[in-house]
Design a protein that fits this description.
Helix content: over 70%
Oligomer: single chain
Number of strands: 0
Distance between the termini: 87 Å
Radius of gyration: 40 Å
Order of helices and strands: HHH
Structural class: mainly alpha
Number of helices: 3
Largest sheet: none
């Protein structure tokens, strides 16, 4: 994130020592460390919540696709049942679907 080298850290420490003084420097350093740690935890928490929300959205989308597939599967099953019913009817009464041989051409129309 930040590219801070050793020389920059030493410069900040020296300026802090001169500005704050040796008595208050340890307390200020602890407070700065506390706030840095707290901000890092906050950023980590926000990242985790964002990742969790993306995963939840992916699960919702997968569930929606699964429900759509179930509807399609139900339609295929219903169509298959209808076709089997028609096939059974044709097998049971084949003579009902054949024209008699003794009909004239006018009667066929």
């Amino acid at each position: 994130m930040f590219e801070v080298g050793f020389s920059e850290i030493c410069m900040v420490a020296l300026v802090a020592l001169l500005v704050i003084g040796p008595e208050k420097l340890p307390k200020v350093a602890r407070m700065a460390g506390f706030w840095v740690a707290k901000s890092r935890r906050l950023v980590a928490t926000v990242k985790q919540e964002i990742n969790d929300e993306f995963q939840a959205e992916e699960l919702r989308q997968a569930l929606k696709n699964h429900i759509g597939m179930q509807d399609l599967q139900k339609l295929v099953e219903d169509t298959s049942e209808d076709l089997q019913s028609i096939q059974t009817t044709i097998k049971q009464k084949p003579e009902a679907y054949v024209l008699p041989k003794n009909l004239s051409q006018d009667e066929k129309r």
